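Lab notebook: predicted structure, single chain.

Context: the supervisor wants predicted structures on file for every construct in the current expression panel, including those that have not yet been purified. This is the next one on the list. No modifications to the sequence; it matches the entry in the shared construct table.
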Amino acid sequence: MSSPAVDPRAAVAGGFVPDPDRLYEVGRDGRPYTLAPAPPGAAERLELRARRWWVGSILANAAAMGVAAGAVLLGSRVLAAWLGILPILTAPLLLVAPLLRRLAPLRLRRVHRRRPGDFPPPPG
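Prediction complete. Output recorded below exactly as produced.
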């Protein structure tokens, strides 16, 4: 299997060489980008990572609530008040898993820093 011949003059500074067999998209800002193919098993790894973050954040939040409840039952009011902040501090961890899922498609998008000479100038 041979790779297509690439004209060395088509390379621009930074090492970007347009592949004639590939479709390039151009964003509104005029920068070309490509969507890289996902490696095998990438979706499963992302799902597993998001689930681990979700379970870990639920456990951390539950543990913080348990410590705060124990302090209310067994400790002083001042200690209970300070430990009552723990569940509030661990609550943002619950946002990590949805953010991982939301940002996953953006990792596959590769923005090229310089426009190849073959691309038309940006609009405007």
